[in-house]
Amino acid sequence: MKKRRIVLTSILKPVDDTRMTEKLGASLSKVEGVDVYVIGYPSQSQASLHSITILPLHSFKRISLGRMLAPLIVLKKCIQVKPDVLIVNTHELLIVGILNRILFGSKIVYDIQENYARNILFTPAFFWVLRPLLAGFVRFKEMLLTPLFQGVLLAEKCYENELPFGRKNCIVIENKAIVPAGFHRHPPAHKIKIVFTGTLAQSTGVFRAIGLVQKLHQLNPKIELELIGYCAIPAMLGKIRSAINGCTFIRLTGGDRLVPHQQVLEAIRTAHFGIVCYPPAPHTRNKMPTKLYEYLACELPILLQQEPPWINLCNQSQAAILVDFDNPNVAEINAQLSKPFYTTKPRHVTWQSEETRFLDWIKKF
């Protein structure tokens, strides 16, 4: 029997991306009679990718001619594979999706991982004069082309209200955590290690995390911080390095390079606490941070911003210390570091619950 070919593709996400490959791709590879291909940015990771065929793009800078040409390279690779189902996860590949539907009759799915127009409008990735024009163009393109897709995946529940163009045949598949079998945290006894994982940016709270740990370290010299993740904007990375300059108790891992997920999990394995703190902003409002699910699934205690949905999720298992990051009570936070956490095991935070729903939904294609 001829196998069906499913391609998942991105421009900036690496070929071993957690959602695209480790979650969606790995789940699809379990389906009998399916060959799974992933097209994306090249990765340095040597991790096993199950039975998935990897088709990496060439390296390019975030804002460059190489990025502008990347959709054409993706299209070329799709022409070689001739997918039965094509899943794209960025607005830059919407036209590639439509062309595959025309050329091969592919079923096309748009995996909406971000509110891209808001990201452009409210982050410093582009010069401020260009932001409204670029955001408007992206939103117009999504509104025009998304209805031509057979299905839409939404990575956040809030996108059902924010992105009405994506409501046709859509399903919310959240970025819940994948934890390897046999994973156990083993933090060192001689220090208190705090981690800040994921995208390193002002909008994700990296400077709030640095400021809090600097204050905590003054009170308790055993406290250290590891920042581990990627910073896409060179000027922002410079500000982060300036903020931690001279702080021997703060370590930066990654920064100007993508960090494999296995390395992030290792940082969590050796940590005592994780930080979740997002400054109020239109493009992050109502979202559930992926690392919140990951910390809970790994049973890592959390220094948590006072956001009601996040608090409700953590309170189920006594997982967090609530922190007012604008005016932290450092003495109180330090006193709570030794209290018991995870009195009950967290529920509904892992990918298994999403995987079944995703496969049931995608099988109709």
Care to describe what's here?
- This protein has 365 residues and is an alpha/beta fold.
- Helix content is 37%, strand content 20%.
- The protein has helices at 18-28, 65-81, 94-104, 116-122, 131-145, 159-162, 206-219, 234-244, 261-269, 290-297, 308-315, 330-336, 351-362; strands spanning 4-14, 34-41, 53-56, 85-88, 107-112, 151-154, 170-172, 192-197, 223-230, 250-255, 273-276, 302-305, 320-323.
- The strands form two sheets. It has a seven-stranded parallel sheet, with helices on both faces.
- Helix 4 runs antiparallel to helix 5 (131-145) and helix 7 (206-219) packs across helix 12 (330-336).
- The mean pLDDT is 93.
Number of helices in the DSSP assignment: 13
Q: How far is it from the N-terminal to the C-terminal residue, by CA?
A: 17 Å
Helix and strand string, N-terminal first?
A: EHEEHEHEHHEHEEHEHEHEHEHEHH
Overall 3D geometry?
globular
**Multimeric status of the protein:** single chain
Report low-confidence residues grouped into runs of 5 or more: none
Cα radius of gyration in angstroms: 21 Å
| Helix content bin | 25-40%
Secondary-structure class = alpha/beta
Number of strands: 13
Average pLDDT over all residues:
93
Strand order of the largest sheet: 3-2-1-4-5-6-7
Largest sheet: 7 strands, parallel
Question: β content, as a range?
Answer: 15-25%
